[in-house]
Amino acid sequence: MRVLITGACGFAGRYLVRELTAAGHKPYGFGLEPPPNPEFCPVIQGDILDAAAVAAAIRKIKPDAVVHLAALTTPAEGAMRAALMISVNIQGTANVLESIRREAPSARLLAVSSARVYGSRTPDVPIQEDDPLTPDSLYAVTKEAADRLTLQYARELKMSFMTARPHNHTGPGQAESLSVGSFASQFRRMAAGVSPAVLKVGNLDSARDFLDVRDVVRAYRLLLECGRPGQAYNIASGRQVSIRMLIDALCRLSGIHPTVEVDPDRYRPADFSAPLDTTRLTTDTGWTTGFTLEDTLREMLVG
Amino acid sequence: MRVLITGACGFAGRYLVRELTAAGHKPYGFGLEPPPNPEFCPVIQGDILDAAAVAAAIRKIKPDAVVHLAALTTPAEGAMRAALMISVNIQGTANVLESIRREAPSARLLAVSSARVYGSRTPDVPIQEDDPLTPDSLYAVTKEAADRLTLQYARELKMSFMTARPHNHTGPGQAESLSVGSFASQFRRMAAGVSPAVLKVGNLDSARDFLDVRDVVRAYRLLLECGRPGQAYNIASGRQVSIRMLIDALCRLSGIHPTVEVDPDRYRPADFSAPLDTTRLTTDTGWTTGFTLEDTLREMLVG
């Protein structure tokens, strides 16, 4: 399949390009940034907020499928740049939906949403895709709006559109502003002897569903190949890993046992990833997680 | 209060200008159209999609409160102009939220949403504002997104923002494309002898919560005066009036008894307005409906 990827040069995008190429597909990128290296797939540079540029890219590439990743994804910065986040995440998605409808109406679309559309609920029973959406941050509200618009295009305008709702994912190359990336980077600096053996942490009791980015992009590829239009798909490992467990694993793998200091600037009340039911994804595509927590952390310690 | 109204020249906007003036407030309009008559309040002409124009209007007027009415509200046309509806209803609202945050951060905002954010559910117990939102059309999805963005600005950024979720409303001057307006106009033409006594209808069993536009704008004014920031407010009469009852009332009031013909182009499966709990609105503002069905229809038969 010819696959156009918005946000192809971002963290998940770069892994998705590799995943699609390895599976025999032909990826193309669309986004603000130039290709990160000469071996990367072709990239059309343009702004997702420029509806004409999005339409022109689709007209040119004639994709069989589109994966829409482009978004501002860092909730903590949301309040500071609320207006841009709203525009990019909602109007940017609307530009993609409408461009496909006009320029390539039979193309499949996977619009990447977020598990945060369910808010910070932690019910006893894992959340299914058709349960109520209860976003509780500005970031989550923008992702929920984009998710609903995408599915409504499928239902009302008969487009082959799906959404994916992954938990946060991690892996080698993750930005240091995200907690796992930050811990791995601190351990690397200690191992190199450029930092004292002191680890700055937030709340050790917070826990996250721990997903490797490579498992996530494999889910995306499988959904392009055999997902059902009109459906949302949860993507989760089902493993809740506390920050404490994460640090223990990093100590074990690195052989470094730093002093752990709680940094008041990083401290938040303990929070947890919403438990997600992934039956729909596994039934429709056969997906399971392939990377263990240790696999992922071992590679992140290398850099 | 100095009150800036987006969409002031629309159907509800014109009634709101009158309501606010009568209550001693000072309304100003912002919108694409010029004032409908010389006695109308001052209007700044501009496009809600032009963020700089919205910000400039707020900077100029320095409002104590804003009522955001500007929206594309005709669901039937939604699929035809999906892209514009999404932009106006969501990005247009985002422009209002952000402009107030920057230019008049202490101003109160009432962003007018829609009862359609609850979808076409008709549960036995009336729906409360904090129940799940389940929009089931592209129009409803755009209104839900705007509603959630508004409330999230209140919660996350501490703005004095509220939303109103009214059912469809009607009254003298309503566009003929909406069913009550269309029936009243057909009766007026029959009374004038320019049409034969034949009434074209859709499904007679469909029923709507019947709200007079003047009751609705009174609710808006009361919410500006004493609504609580961060809250959504249902607005409904609690009366479900079937198309059959509506036509019976129009026959009785006009003395005309036309042949009723079901028009296949207008026929849809019977649908009903979601039953809404309005306890929050009545408790916080003392609002009740003032117009009976017959009051409204009698005036609509005059034109």
Concise synopsis of the structure shown:
Chain A has 303 residues and is an alpha/beta fold. Chain A contains nine helices and 13 strands. The mean pLDDT of chain A is 92.
Determine the CATH superfamily of the largest domain in chain A: NAD(P)-binding Rossmann-like Domain
Summarize the amount of helix of chain A as a percent range.
Answer: 25-40%
Strand content of chain A: 15-25%
Low-confidence parts of chain A: none
Task: Describe the structure in your own words.
2 copies of one chain form a homodimer. Chain A is α/β, with parallel strands linked by helices. The first copy, chain A, folds into 2 domains: 2-170 and 211-236 and 276-289, NAD(P)-binding Rossmann-like Domain (Rossmann fold, 3-Layer(aba) Sandwich), CATH 3.40.50.720; 179-207 and 240-272 and 295-302, UDP-galactose 4-epimerase, domain 1, CATH 3.90.25. Chain A contains 9 helices and 13 strands. Chain A has helices at 11-22, 51-61, 82-103, 138-157, 179-191, 213-226, 243-254, 279-285, 293-302, and strands at residues 2-6, 26-31, 43-45, 65-68, 108-112, 160-166, 169-170, 198-201, 207-209, 211-212, 232-235, 240-242, 259-262. In chain A, the strands form 4 sheets. The first copy, chain A, has a 7-stranded parallel sheet with strand order 3-2-1-4-5-6-11, sandwiched between helices. In chain A, strand 5, helix 4 (138-157) and strand 6 form a beta-alpha-beta unit. In chain A, helix 2 runs parallel beside helix 3 (82-103) and helix 3 runs parallel beside helix 4 (138-157). Chain A is globular and about 60 Å long. The interface between A and B is medium-sized, with 29 and 29 residues.
